[in-house]
Amino acid sequence: MQKPILVFKIGTSSITDEKGNLDETVVKSVAKQLAALHRDFHIVLVSSGAVGTGKKYIKDYSGKIEERKAAAAIGNPILIHKYSEVFKKYKIAIAQSLCERGHFSDREKFLQLRATYRELWSNGVIPIANENDVVSSRELKFSDNDELATLLAVGFGAQYLLIGTSVKGVMDKDGKLLKKIEKFDDKVLALATKETSAFGLGGMITKLTFAHLATSMGIKVVIFSAKEKNGLINAVHEKTGTVCTPKNVTKSARQKWLVSGSLVIGSIVVDDGAHKALLKRKSLLAVGIKSIGSMFEKGEAFEIQDENGNAFAVARSKISSSELQKKLKEKNLVLAHADDIVLI
C-alpha cells in the first residue's frame, strides 16, 4: 500500500542561530525524527535557511533582492551538504529540489514535478525543497516557504502539513497556546501579527493563511516549535503546537491543483443568480457576469467574486476577458465549465 505523504516546513529562525549560522543541534534533531517517520510516510522537507546561511559571505549585506539571491546561491549548497551528512547516519539519501512558481502554475510542469518526487520516494530518498531564489522573478516568487510547502502538500495530496516555527504555535490574545483551530474566521486570523524573524520572510499571518488553504483541501496542519524535543513526532500525534482540523473534501487532484497551484491572473464579479448557480456546481455563463475586474487570457485562471466583492471560487477560462467583454449578454456562452470551477 502506498504510504501517506507528510510535508514538513522548517523556518529560518528555527534552523539558524541569532547570527544566521546553522544550528546543528536542530538539524540533527530534524534528521533523527524524519528518519523515524520515514518508515511510515513519504516525506518532503521544505527547509528555509539558505539566505540566512549565505548572507554573511556578502559584504555589507543590506537585504536587497540581488543580495538575497546571491546569499541563497551560497547558502543552498551549505544547507544541503549539512542535511546530507546528518541523514547519512540513518542510511537515507536526500535530493535537492529548487522550485519555481511556474512548476505549479503550469499543469504539465507540475505533473512532471510530482512524477519526479514519486520516483525519489520509490527509492527511499527524501526530497528537500526550497525556492530557486537565484532565478525567481519578483512577480512569480512564492510569498515564502510556507506557500511552497502548502502547494506541495495540496498538489501531492499530503495527509499532514507540519509547520515548524520558533514559537510554540498560535497564541490567543492572552498569550496562551491555542491548541486547536477548527474554523478559520476573523477571530482566529486576528490573532496573527505581521512580525517576522530577523532572517525569515513570513510571520504567523502567512502561516494561518496557508493553513487555511491546506485544511480546506483536506490536509491536517500543525504549527509548532521546531526546536522542541521530539516536536515533529509529537506534532504527528497532535501532542504539541496548534492543530488545524482538516475539512472533508471530495475534490479531484486536478481541482486541488487549480485552486492552489494555478496563478490566478484575473477576476470577475457575478450577479446573485450566477452565484447561486455556481454554488450548485453549474457552469459559469457570460450572461451572469456583472463586471470584469482584472483581465485574463484564454486558459488562464481567474477569481470569481459575489456582488459584495467576496471571492468564493477559482476557475479556468474557456475564452479571454477581451472576447468576453464583447459578448457579455450573449446567452449560452460558457466562460468556465463546471469541471474547471473550484469553490473556495
Structural class based on helices, strands and sheet pairing: alpha/beta
Task: Give Rg in angstroms.
Answer: 21 Å
End-to-end C-alpha gap? 31 Å
Widest beta sheet: strand line-up: 3-4-2-1-5-7-8-6
Low-confidence stretches: 194-202
Architecture (CATH level 2) name of the largest domain = 3-Layer(aba) Sandwich
Succession of helices and strands: EHHEHHEHHEHEEHHEHEHEHEEEEHEE
Number-wise, the strands total: 15
Mean pLDDT: 86
What is the level 1 CATH name of the largest domain?
A: Alpha Beta
For the biggest sheet, the summary is: 8 strands, mixed
Q: What fraction of the residues are assigned to beta strands by DSSP? A: 15-25%
What does this structure look like?
The chain has 344 residues and is of the alpha/beta class. It folds into 2 domains: 5-251, Carbamate kinase (3-Layer(aba) Sandwich); 263-343, PUA domain (Archaeosine Trna-guanine Transglycosylase, Chain: A, domain 4, Roll). The chain is 36% helix and 21% strand. It has helices at residues 12-15, 24-37, 50-54, 65-88, 102-105, 107-122, 145-156, 186-189, 204-216, 231-236, 253-260, 272-279, 321-326; strands at residues 5-10, 42-47, 94-99, 126-131, 160-165, 180-181, 220-225, 242-244, 264-270, 284-285, 289-294, 301-305, 311-316, 334-336, 341-343. The strands form 3 sheets. Strands 3-4-2-1-5-7-8-6 form an 8-stranded mixed beta sheet, with helices on both faces. A 5-stranded mixed beta sheet has the order 11-9-12-13-15. Strands 10-14 form a two-stranded antiparallel sheet. The longest helix has 24 residues, at 65-88. The chain is globular.
